[in-house]
């Protein structure tokens, strides 16, 4: 089994680097994701971050090709190990200076840097070192033991998928939805399908609507209720400059059944209500916010 594992290591590593490299080089999402990465924060430029991501992707593709064509040569494995070490260093620094940013490891991953990114970089480091030392070719392992190779490759693919946050929508989210349908929400202890208020608050605080209204909000959640399928969340706030500041109630409304496991971001409606008169305050800034997911509340 050990010889089979070391023999297939170049193939597995080539598959991982080929995928992440191809996404960085050829995907139009690279330029879109670059401003959200820790790399853009470090380089202080989205354009430079895009260039570095594409160059890194090209390097990954070159190493992947070497692992496939000349796996017995120690150079591709050593290059992969160096790349993995570089990834670990970048992730550690990125996590320290920009913990809210994504790593850009696959140029389509928009989640903050987590242990999964570190684990995937460690796979590249360990896999590269293994290939460089073993200097085995992968085709005898596949031709001589096809069944074992197929099982091992399937397990490696499943592990790499589990370590890739941008693939969660294909397996983890459907799995969570199925669990909620079968067992109900764990915070409720029943299968009623209701979403806890805490889950709605978490969803709201990760939305663009919250980011737009956050400078006005001055309290934690004060009140909540449901109305015609909407969950209403009320906060207090202060609107206007220091000289003309006025107390307001900041009211958000979102789908009462929406949660982190329900897929697309829900529509969030926002309204400011004057605390003294009870009349709605017109907020042009919210109406002009750059997202169709932020809508003013009617009335």
Ordered list of secondary-structure elements with their pairings:
Layout: H1 2-26, H2 29-33, H3 38-43, H4 46-69, H5 74-97, H6 115-134, H7 139-144, H8 146-162, H9 168-183, H10 197-205, H11 208-213, E1 223-227, E2 230-239, E3 246-255, E4 268-274, E5 280-281, H12 284-287, E6 294-296
Parallel strand pairs: 4-6
Antiparallel strand pairs: 1-2, 2-3, 3-4, 4-5
Helix pairs in contact: 1-4, 1-6, 1-8, 4-5, 5-6
Mean pLDDT: 82
Question: Quick one: overall form?
Answer: elongated
Question: What is the CA-atom radius of gyration, in angstroms?
Answer: 25 Å
Query: What composes the largest sheet?
Result: 6 strands, mixed
Task: Kindly describe this structure.
This protein is of the alpha+beta class and 299 residues long. The chain is built from 12 helices and 6 strands. Strands 1, 2, 3, 4, 5 and 6 form a 6-stranded mixed β-sheet that branches. Strand 4 (268-274) and strand 5 form a beta hairpin. Helix 1 (2-26) runs antiparallel to helix 4 and helix 1 crosses helix 8 (146-162).
Key terms:
299 residues; alpha+beta; 12 helices; 6 strands; elongated
In short:
The protein is an alpha+beta fold and 299 residues long. Helices cover 54% and strands 12% of the residues.
